[in-house]
């Protein structure tokens, strides 16, 4: 049977180089990706190099807090 606590969770990755002057997380100029990670293998926050459509180049995207 399946466990109650899922091992794989859905996370949101956000661009670190986009302008984030405002505290609201719904700015139009911020690139975001959704992906999954294994909770057992990667305990720390994930950082991946992805394409940012606002910056028009590959930048580091970090996992957001939930």
Automatic annotation (TrEMBL):
Query: Could you tell me the keywords of this UniProt record?
Result: Chloroplast, Plastid, Ribonucleoprotein, Ribosomal protein
Which portions of this protein are annotated as coiled-coil regions? none
Source domain of life is: Eukaryota
Q: Name one GO biological process term.
A: translation
For molecular function, the Gene Ontology terms on record are: structural constituent of ribosome
Annotated Pfam families: Ribosomal_L33 (PF00471)
Q: Which GO terms describe its cellular component?
A: cytoplasm; ribonucleoprotein complex; ribosome
Query: What stretches pass through the bilayer?
Result: none
Question: What does the sequence similarity comment in the record state about its family?
Answer: Belongs to the bacterial ribosomal protein bL33 family.
Q: What is this protein called?
A: Ribosomal protein L33
Identify the species of origin: Equisetum arvense
């Amino acid at each position: 049977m399946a466990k109650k606590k899922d091992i794989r969770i859905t996370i949101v990755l956000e661009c670190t180089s986009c302008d984030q002057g405002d505290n609201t997380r719904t700015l139009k100029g911020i690139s975001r990706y959704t992906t999954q990670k294994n909770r057992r293998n990667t305990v720390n926050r994930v950082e991946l190099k992805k394409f940012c459509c606002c910056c028009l180049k590959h930048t580091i995207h970090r996992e957001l807090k939930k």
